[in-house]
Amino acid sequence: MPEVKPALLNNLNRHLGLVGPSAIRAFDIEVSSIPDIIKLTLGEPDFNVPDHIKKAAIQSIETNDSHYAASNGTSKLRESAAGFLADRYDVHYDAESEVVVTIGATEAIYDTLTTILNPGDKIILPTPIFPLYIAVGLVDGAQPIFVDTSTNDFVLSPEMLKAAIAEHGDDIKAVVLNFPSNPTGVTYNEEQIKAIADVLRGTNIIVISDEIYSELSYENTHVSMAKYLPEQTILLNGVSKSHAMTGYRIGILAGPAQLVQKIAMIHQFATTTASNPAMAAAAEALGTEDGRQDTLNMKVEYMQRRDYVYEKMTELGFKVAKPDGAFYIFAKIPAGYSQDDFVFARDLAQKNGLALIPGSSFGPGGEGYVRLSYAASIEKLQQAMQRLSTYMKENAK
């Protein structure tokens, strides 16, 4: 096996030294070797992709749809995505010039940040937050401005946003909103979205509104930031979470044409285009009544799982902001147990075979918490709660 010439390692992007591998993936791998482990670690829906969506992918293959699609995605999928966003959230985009199909929302995050950020720029990140935003921002040479929302039930208030803008001023290039949130499941209502839009309207700050979990909003109807601040918003969505299509890797990016076309250049350089069968499946998911019903059926089960886990963990002494969406519980470790979330999570995994993600993986405000994904069967969740209950009884200090 070849050994790299040591001097070459000094010639890499110097910002790579500021980041490491995904803490979520690293912890998941670390605990995977534990016998009989129950992993509630990754945001991976346990549902199968609905048959009519699979058939659309199969038809694409069988009809030899095997040549390059347009870089921004097939016209059918872009039209389906634009129709979906208009019908569900009353946000309106031209499918030809204002919508790009990406390799999952992950690529959309990378493309958008890489387009927007220059070295030295600042980006507001309400934390706890999906850590990819932190890593990509750092690799791009930007400075994350962390706003800890744990003191406000994990919601970025207008006052918090105003304070960050007042302190950092013209150096702020963008702000990220991810709702319903990964890792907390907390979301924003219409009044809160309007208030944040009012703060940002008088600025030149771009809003990256990651709404990948929008279809998994429970008690309240999801309201998009793009409805109230379309001229400054890049909207991210996709089918991974809504239709259990994580492996199909299809994301949707939408926004004002002049901004989107710049982002589309990075997309083109990075990936050329998404896979044709996956795009055919996503068009079926977003563009048909059956596809939209699929999510509603899944959502009913997610709500039942959420209520079960929330009740059990609350009984065990965990403090939880009850999630309004997504499929995560973000729980404060009770007093009387290690408040080092990595120590707690490792001990739980090793002693009782239950793996949760340490909360500090998600930035400031996540310390002393653990994230549980309830995108698992109710039977597995029942086993998990039994193991957690046993651990809490046997390990209290």
From TrEMBL:
Q: Which Gene Ontology MF annotations are present?
A: pyridoxal phosphate binding; transaminase activity
Residue span(s) of domain Aminotransferase class I/classII large: 36-388
InterPro entries referenced in this protein's UniProt entry, alphabetically: Aminotransferase_I/II_large, AspAT/PAT-like, NHTrfase_class1_PyrdxlP-BS, PyrdxlP-dep_Trfase, PyrdxlP-dep_Trfase_major, PyrdxlP-dep_Trfase_small
Instruction: Share an example GO biological-process annotation for this protein.
Output: amino acid metabolic process
Task: Please provide an example of a Pfam family that matches this protein in its UniProt record.
Answer: Aminotran_1_2
Q: Which UniProt keywords apply?
A: Aminotransferase, Pyridoxal phosphate, Transferase
Q: What EC number(s) would the UniProt record show? A: 2.6.1.-
Give the first-level EC class, as a single word. transferase
Tell whether Transferase is among the UniProt keywords.
yes
Organism domain of life: Bacteria
Q: Which family does it belong to?
A: Belongs to the class-I pyridoxal-phosphate-dependent aminotransferase family.
Name of the protein in its database record: Aminotransferase
User: Source species, please?
Assistant: Leuconostoc litchii
